[in-house]
Amino acid sequence: MWRAVCITKRTMRKQLFIAAVLAFGGCKAKSSDVAADNTQKNDRDHAAVPTADNSAKSGTDEEITQKVRKGVMNDDTLSTTAHNCKIVVDKGVVTLVGPVKSQDEVTRVVAAASAVVGDANVVNKLEITN
User: Fold this and answer.
1) Would you say 108 and 75 are in contact if contact means Cβ atoms under 8 Å apart?
2) Which DSSP letter does residue 38 get?
3) Which CATH number goes with the domain that contains 80?
């Protein structure tokens, strides 16, 4: 029993030591030193490209957004990146913004939007990234 108590105390001391080192910055990572890879692109896009928060709030535009998003999400061949592209609808015009992995994904996402509003009402601002 004495040995079990000693091991427990030793283990507790190690855990306290590790907690103290971490609490006082011994192994502190500085997340503020590393900017996100796409920060500049997001800042540029926010200024130059329509976003969901500044699009019209009409019921028709919201229905179009839902239908296009559903079409994109139902395409299992698309990457997660393509599934997460921005779909902004303003007065029936769909603007697609964001990165995708290939030209095939651009074609598929644009086709999903075109199936809802027609080719003439789709603005393609998707970018192919590696």
Assistant:
1) yes
2) T
3) 3.30.750
